[in-house]
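Quick one: structure tokens for this chain, please?
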Amino acid sequence: MVRDPVQSLAPQPLHAATVAMRPLRVGMIGIGTVGAGTFRVLARNQVQIAGRAGRGIEMVVVAARNLTRAASVVGTDVALTNDPVLVATHPDVDVVVEVAGGAGPARDWVLAAIRAGKHVVTANKALLAIHGNEIFAAARQHGVAVAYEGAVAVSIPIVKALREGLTANRIEWVAGIINGTTNFILSKMRDECLGFAQALDQAQALGYAEADPTFDIEGVDAAHKITLLAANAFGMPVRFADAQIEGITRLQGQDVACAEQLGYRIKLLGVARRRHDGVELRVQPALVPASHLMAHVNGSMNGIMVKGDASGVTMYYGAGAGSEQTASAVIADLVDVARLDGTHAAQRVPHLGFHAHAVDDTVAVLPRAAVRTRHYLRVPVHSAQQIEAVGAWLATQQVPVLQVALAQEKALPPGSGPQVLVLTDAVAQSTVDLAVFALAAHPAVAGPVAALRVEMLEG
């Protein structure tokens, strides 16, 4: 039977292993994949969770579209409603967990919860990337916490690492593979010599990609996440609208193979890098040295590296998707809220990172043209003898060439003509763009030039 959500919700008796303090009472909006996982893990590990939190954590009310399905997940001891606002404002709720997704109605529910004095835990990266500044400002105003570890890298505690483990550091850069779907596709393209469309079909068949995978394959999901990481790393506002985003839909299998020939692998990377004149905030497919740890993050896994001035480079690795994997992060946020509830608001708002007095609104996000990296070029030519001409011509365009080679025949589609592979030293994107544009008119060039960045991720 579905209980009336407005009836009295008396706290359930605490397990004997919990302390005497009143449980933290949770209302959850959404009981889909992440919500169901959160409920299961919270119920299964309640003794350990309560011991670590210093008090019990109790689910008291859940909002769901399908109440019958929700009842099959939560049973009869949790009130159910189809009204998220009721959960957001419920008098018996201390913290609202928003795991419904989307950036429209979820904004209204979260702001309603904050105005009602509720702490918020969310795994909704789109919500925070688009409306985060407004939500964090409201949280500061009302003295509540907003926690979002599950929104960034699933079970990897990267936000906690930035705000706690690396708190003594001036963060120089954060870079990583933060989308499991695209990493699975790129791994398949390399390991099985598949084209992008074939690899995507496999990802969808196995459940790694949605029926509409646009947010993943166009880099938007990764951009949401790197935007939140940059805000934490550099104490800047959430600047998703300024992020440069390039997905993998135009990536060709021959470039994956040619990168391998040169000793590199292609990964979709989110990069946030501090420079003297601003911050690079970008997502793009890039070559990584095959010997680098990041090149060995395969399948649907995620990997993130952080460079601090004192710590040097640290690396974090874990699952890039999953119901209980995300639940792990959501519940860790609930434990933090349970511990911090009652502390001074200045110590916890926004809960995971930067406070009002520490946010630097003057930080500029650098334009694409100003980004400096190494580059990979694949140049179709009429004759293999023109390899030296391509390298020499690039040098006249102020492109610092490090290596020039001919693509191996096995790396190219059947019937392809000769292709010149070029690796450059670090150079501004504007210089490379002009050179690629001019190459199209060079008499030695037989077709469009492919260009990708190369990320060394050095300490």
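Confidence is low (pLDDT under 50) at residues 5-19, 348-354.
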